[in-house]
Each structure stands twice: as structure tokens, then as C-alpha cells.
Amino acid sequence: MDAFYASVEQRDNPELRGKALVVGGSPEGRGGVVATASYEARKFGVRSAMPSKTAQKLCPHAIFVRPRFAEYKEVSRRIREIFSRYTDLIEPLSLDEAYLDVTEDKLNIGSAIEIAQQIKQAIKDELNLTASAGVSINKFVAKIASDINKPDGLKFIGPSAIERFMEKLPVEKFHGVGKVTAQKMKGMNLHTGFDLKQLSEDEMIRHFGKAGRFYYQIVRGIDNRAVQPDRETKSMGAEDTFAYDLSDTTEMHAELDKLAVKVVERLQRYQLKGRTVTLKVKYSDFKQITRNQSFPTPIGDLETIQQAAKQLLTQIDPDKKVRLLGISLSNFNEAATVGANELHGQLRLFGDQE
Question: Binding residues for Mg(2+), per the UniProt record (predicted)?
């Protein structure tokens, strides 16, 4: 979906249409972080996971609204119903993004491009929202394709074009390559897929660990992961490794706020609540610890998770710098379970909340 939360707000409130809109956080009081921003606000550099006070400095005329997760969840359910007209192989990743395997589509259309066009049109006609689609032979390439022509875009990358496309792709555009890894790659004079392709698989693993094998394959357009509509969910979380080690508590709190937003969105997608919040911390010396807090009843709201994570942060060593933080929720009241199907031919409808 295109700027999903912001688009829903603009759809439901005509006064917000065409305005620079920020969903989440508030520049006054406790602050918080941006969940997403309208394209009008993005022109000024406002991005999701950005502190709301920074967003206001970049775009002083921006309008801030609180997220309505219940409404986003209902819209997401209706989008999922549209998907299910074409295939049962749907792997949701968040409220606004999913993989669809249309190797064998229910309506016998026989064209992933045509299916993507029909889904986009149905979302526009029935929900008055726009989506962007990426179409290719596997998850990785379809995801990359989905980001190319946003908003309201559709991009097909066929088998014969994949390797050439991947060779031209900047390393920071590779899904799974974060800021820290991208910086490391550029420090090794690896700037594009073509550069990565010059390394052997052993060299990739030596430099980047287990992820090196994945990078070696995807730069060649190889991704054999199946769309998995049914997986047992034992925990749900988010984590981030920072470009520099953190020592300031205020900075850590800001990062925890961003992570909590991601966790809550994923919980909403799977309609889950849990009783245990876990904080993961990796220090600059690579020592890793976890701290957790359990609640008597299941929780899933943003404020409770943020407060719990910040309280757990008081239990870490204040003299050590932090290179990674993570938040997860577990001990669910119910499991989101379903089987997996090993088929190929992926259609990716991907959001741009992040």
C-alpha cells in the first residue's frame, strides 16, 4: 500500500487531502516517532521512524494525527479479502504488505501482471486507496520491483532481465542490507550488485557471515524461499543495529519508540497480544543480554510496550555503549498457525511504511 496510514487518514478526512500529514507521535509533550507520512510531507524529508520533533523541524506546517490501528486493521482485512479472490497463498508481513504466490491462480487468469493490475484496481474501486505491485519469479526480486514506481506503481522484472537489473542495483537497495552493512560494503569498494558479484561465495561468507551466502545468491537473482501462508508465531519483534554505538539514554529511548511502532503494527496484522515483553541489547563489545517483563493479562498497545521496554533498559550496564536494541512480545494468548506451501512464481504487493 502507498503511505498506508496517511492515505487512510486522508481518505476519511477530506480536510487532510493534499496536506503534509504525519501519522504518529506529536512534536509537543512526550514526542514519539513518525509511523508514516503522506507524500506531501515526504517531499520535505519526513520519513517513518523519525522522531516527531525532527519531522516538525523539516516540515513546520505538517499536521500530526494519532494512529487509528483498529481502522487500519479493518482496511487491511478487506485488502486481504481482495487478495484471496486470486490465491490462497498469501504471506502477510504487516498491515499493508504481503507476498502472493499466483503460480496457480483461482480465476485461471494465467498472468501475474494482469492479476496485479486487477488487484490494484479493486483496491482503488472498493477502498479508494492505491497500492504498488512488484511482479517477478521470486520474493526478493518482486519486493525490489514493488518499490520502483511508487505510488500507484506496477513493475515487472522478468527472468531474462533479473541479473542485469541486480548488477545495477546500489547495495543499499538490497532487501536485508541495512545501513551498517551497506557502509561496510562501500568501505570495501562494493557499491553495486555488479561489485558484489565479483566476490566468491566463500569470500562473501568470510566478510558477512551467514548472510553472505544469501547475498551471493540474491545478487544472481536466486531466491528459493516459498510464500508461507501459515506459520506458528511464538514471538514477534523488531531490532536494529546502529551506525554508531549509543551511550545516551535519550537516543536509546527514541530508538525503542521506533521499534515499538514496528512491533505493534505486526501484532495488529496477526491480531495478537502477548504477556511478555523482552528487551534485547547488544553492547559494543558484542556481548548480548536480554531482559523481560511479564504481565498478568495479554497486552499489545503501543504505550505499554514502549514503557516496558524503557523500564527494562534501566537494568542494563550504564557504562557500556550499545550497538543493537530489540523489542519482542511473546507468550501469546493465541497462535497464528497455518501450513506452508512450496510453490514458486511470486507477486509482491509491498508497503512503504518503513
Answer: 96
Q: What is the mean pLDDT of residues 100-112?
A: 93
Does domain 235-332 sit in CATH 3.30.1490.100?
yes
Residues paired with 37 in a beta bridge: 22
**Distant-in-sequence, close-in-space partners of 114: CB < 8 Å, separation ≥ 6:** none
DSSP letter for 35, please.
S
Q: Could you give the percent of the chain with pLDDT greater than 90?
A: 67
Domain residue spans of the chain: 4-65, 69-231+338-354, 235-332
pLDDT tens per residue, range 109-139:
999 999 999 999 999 999 999 999 999 999 9
Q: Which residues are annotated as a binding site for Mg(2+)?
A: 96
Is the confidence at residue 335, as pLDDT, over 60?
no
Tell me which DSSP letter residue 33 carries. Answer: B
Residues annotated within the binding site are 96
Phi, psi of 33 (to 5 degrees): -130, 160
Question: Other CB atoms closer than 10 Å to residue 29's CB: what's the count?
Answer: 8
- How far apart CA 254 and CA 243 sit, in angstroms, is 15
May I ask the CATH class of domain 69-231+338-354? Answer: alpha beta
Which residues are the active-site residues? 97
